Amino acid sequence: CQMPDTLNSWFLVAQLHVWMCLVRMKQEGRSGKYMCRYIVHCMWEDVEQRGKVMGINSVVLKEDLRSMVENFYAALFGYDEGILSDDRVLAAALWRNLFNRNCEDPRHLELLVEYVRKQVQHLDALSGEDLLLTGEVSWRPLVESNARSILKPLSPVYNDEGL
Questions:
Q1: What global pTM score does this model have?
Q2: Is 135 part of any domain?
């Protein structure tokens, strides 16, 4: 979606995926809540490590991390509201949080709304026990030839025999 190749852009994409994992893990009771804390902890360690590898000054990195923490928790609320609402609310949350209010192409927002909805549905279908035991999450591709098919309910099957 033409986002710049920066630590912050990487973080914004990672943050979205972490949020989707948190949504799924919260369904797994006490173990899921523990996993949520662990996922967030690992995310922050990864952000810090990537910043160091990129050669970002430690003082600047510390300031960036402080800003990222504030944005992370605000984004969680926005994404939660978006996933529970209609596509306009989710698009607004993505525009604010992922694109930093800087997305000129509405097709990018449409693509990301579809992506988030299909990922959340995909994650909901995964075994919670397997997720907790392995920590392995599979993701659907960003672009699929018939991406909307996952979101459409199956047509009802009518059994008229015997009537």
A1: 0.85
A2: yes
Number of domains in the chain: 1
Q: Which two tokens stand for residue 87?
A: 């596509």
* Residues with Cβ within 8 Å of residue 8, at least 6 apart in sequence: 64, 68
Domain region containing 86? 7-150
The 8 Å CB, 24+ separation contacts for 141-150 are 142/111, 142/115, 143/111, 144/118, 147/114, 147/115, 147/118, 148/114, 150/118, 150/121, 150/122
Q: Is residue 44 situated within a structural domain? A: yes
With cut-offs at 50, 70 and 90, classify the pLDDT of residue 2: confident
3-class state of residue 106 by DSSP? helix
Rounded Cα distance, 104 and 2, in Å = 10
**pLDDT exceeds 70 at position 47:** yes
